[in-house]
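Example 3.2
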Amino acid sequence: MALREDLQIILGDAYTIERELGGGGMSRVFVATQRELGRQVVVKVLPPDMAAAVSIDRFKREIMLAARLQHPHIVPLLGAGASAEPLWFTMPYVQGHSLRERLSSGGELPIPEVVRILRDVADALAYAHRHGVVHRDIKPENVLLGEGHALVTDFGVSKAIADSTSDANRITATGVALGTPAYMSPEQANAEPHVDHRADIYAFGVLAYELLAGRPPFTGSSPHSVIAAHIRDIPDPIAALRPQIAPELADLVMRCLEKRPADRPKSADELLALLATLATPTGAPSYAPGRAARMTARAKRRSLFIAVAGVVLLALGAGVRAWRGPADAPARARIVVAPFANETGDKALDDLGKVIAGFVQDALTHTGALDVADFRALTTAPAQASVLSPMVPGDNTALADAAGASLVLHGTVFKVGDSLEIRARVIDARTGTVRASIPAERASVGAPMVAVSQIARRAAGALATMFNAQAQSALTGATHVPTYAAYREFTAGMEAYQIGNFDAAADRFKRAIAQDSAFLAASLWLSAAFNNASPGPLKPTGDSIRAILAALDRRRSELSELDRAILDFSLAEEREERIVALRKATAIWPDRWAYTLGALLNFAGRPRETIALFETIDPTKGFMRGWTAYWLVYFWSYLLLGDFEGASDVAHRGRQQYPNTTLTLCLQGIALTGSGRVAEADSLTNAALPGSPPSGHDEAWCRRQLARSAAYFLPPAQQRPILESALRYFEFGARDSSLARSYELNAAHIAMWLGDTARFVAYHDTLRLPRIPDRESLLARSYARALAHDRAGSERFRSAALAIPPHRFDRGATEHWLARIDLALGDVPAAARHASEARKKGRSVDGIHLDVALRQLRGNPVFEALVKR
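Structure, written as tokens:
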């Protein structure tokens, strides 16, 4: 009791101590309320003998350096110090329990759970190391669990104590200062003066070893014997203790435990990149359950779709609920920011409400600590607007329902004299109850953004009090506040981008940059708009886009974590680098980036991961609302696996959401065709397609896909009627002269699938070729000759094609054509090799693996390895 009373006196009126939680290592831990902000914090107090050896001022400085870390998987430090004993520091009070408690309850953990935990810890370490902070005491006690995620606590505390302790009083007792013996790197055990981030990588290896084996690599009767073992002994191979783990994971763990720091992985980023390849985004194992299990899991995950990725609420105290896997975890509360109402009477300020909402939404999203729905996707009509009910401006209940959000942050702008007054509230979307009122802010009419940024900060503070303490602390890292004129242009650009008008979006982003050159997010989205713009004289070159990205990369320290992830995704040359970057973006903002990640995973031949991710998304809510493309990507995942039952189920659910659109009708027809139910497919598509409303995929696209599926999946006798019907459609169906060449190309391919080589070659000879032949057109003609068994003619066109430099965005197209040519000439090994090379250079796996021209490669091990089944 004496310590509690002494601590309360030192803390004064700033904090009220409520209770003691118990010790954390050598410290004592109290829960207190920070009066000014009305939030709970944890106060950790070091023992008197340790505090006596520490320079208080230096300790406070070191703690404040560590407090700069703001990351979804790091519990931040808030403050530290004292003018006398005791020595203390504070952090948010968050709900959950430690990894040590989890281990104590059951020993070794399931492998998918281990990978998920390690990925979160590696993510935290990578971020801290990039900012020059080494933990020095990674262990299960310093990892908190809850809702399927892990957070690392006490970052920088060991270093703060060690660096603020004089050499004469250097602490050598077991505990915080040196690290913990069971997790101590050899260089720490040897008291080497320059311990760097590789000590954390060693401790990470010890942690991983214990999670997988149920015990650390070294144990002993005393701390000194354990320390000696870290210095001299070689641990038992983890693969011998847990044979079920993937060889890549076993190798990673043992590399982390190398005695020499130089022999370990070079960085935590390397750990993160490898771990990202070992599990699905939800941490699911890399196998597919049976249909009954899949549907059960799908039903559960659909009800929990907003729980994917991100940071969750944890508790630090005793008596907290036991750890539960993600299938049982409650979903995080989702919030949507509504455009603020203009009550000024000045129509010129009508755009202000969207500007405020956009800034507040982006600020909350960039914390990475809240599940925020993108209101722009709901208030700006997508390309498939015809399938949606119109949103009524100001109808927050409808907005919340469309977002799948339980909370709405909305506000009002008033005129008070010559100034603006901005008010905001957080309301329960179901009951209309006010959950939090945000203190009003005054602003000048011409420069409201400083006040808007204060609204965002206070909103984050209110939401942190209710749900996640990290939301407030993460927002303190916000730096540049753009001008109102710049953010108004940016808002208009995002609206144009949302509906696919990339030229208009680029123009608005350029205007935003002209208004405020320090507004880096506008440059980031400008590069995205340029990338997506239609080809033409106004489309910038690839070099121009890369110059924008390179300039952003030089200023990456000024970007948020989310924008850095998007930048890394844009800069990455290798597919795996793009996936790692997009995983980070998805973890911070799943509503906006999960779909893109799923599409990329399909592109990379990882359909099981796409399926696991898409089962966490509700396509009727949030960003995906109104976008039928969700069902296309989801469907194609099952098609890549050859699972027609799963594909049919997805198509059926897609038709339930969009009953008569061309795309969903076609997907169901493809599933029926692939499974051999040709009569049903023909009846469905012939009756429904001609009158179905457009959805971005027209009847011609569908006819080609049905023909392709028949040619790829069905035996010749069953496929012929479908192919002949499609051929008639394309030979006589072009009602617009501008479509004639496209229809002729489709007819050519279908003739080839029918085995009518003469007609295929004739089509290729009569089709209009480029005035100056390019590599791809010549390779197509080489392929036509190969199909006609004209080896000399094929080789002539092939040689001419390869003499032309490839297009800078060839990305495997050449190798894809070579695989077709090789196979037509009977060289199966060369065809399989070229198909594999095409994938490595960037060709989409679905484009290769479902290519009818390569169907003879089915069963070839090199070819089948392109898809993870």
